[in-house]
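Weekly structure sync, notes
Attendees: PL (lead), two postdocs, one rotation student
Agenda item 3: pending single-chain targets
PL asked that the sequence for the first pending target be pasted directly into the notes so everyone works from the same version. It is reproduced below exactly as submitted, 236 residues in total.
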Amino acid sequence: MNILQKITRKIIKFSFDFSVSTIERFNDMEFYNQKVSELRNLEKGMLGKEIADCLDKHKLTLVPNYESHDLKHVLLNYKMTAEDEIRMQAFMLGNGNYTIPCFAILGFGAILLPDLWSTFYQDYKKGKNSIPISSWRIEDYAKSNINELRLKLKKTETEKQQFMNLKTLTKLGAFASIIAGIFGMLFCLPFLFSSNLADLVGAGFPFVGGAILTVGGLLTLSNLTRIEKSQLVTAV
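Predicted structure, written out during the meeting:
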């Protein structure tokens, strides 16, 4: 891991820590501390007990209004790190959790951690191939065996077929981006040679936008190709 990657992870960790501390500052934490205390008393192997152990290990407590967040960390076996936080959001997006926080956190992580795009994609696929858990609450599953719950996560083949393949969708989006970008650049190109300043300014920005769309589409296709090659090597 190079120094830039270390810095980006520290930025993400600081952002999360700051958000959590802000939420805790404006809430009465006694209720949530008591809730964790109750989870500690459950039998080992129960989801609630595992959540309490995880929180104690990292010297944390339940975050007000985000209690199910820790449930997912433990159930899905994602660590309490900046990297795994983003990975979990990729899983949850694939799982159907189309919420602003999910999009925001995943987008934030994707920008700062481009080296993990292929990993995020794999997590997305895992989420897509699992039963929906975004509505799961600690109160409902605290006394359930964590291993049994993990076995229930996997979807049947029939359920899997109900979802469009992300790779196909991404490729279509990439090609659409490239085509739109090239069309925009070609449309604006004649105006860039105009002696009229208004034409130059008016065409310049769309031309740059078209270039960004084209490059973005090409990079996406490149990343998909790299993922496919990696999967092929793994399979061999």
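Discussion points:
- The chain has twelve helices and no strands.
- The longest helix spans residues 197-235.
Action: rotation student to compare against the earlier draft before next sync.
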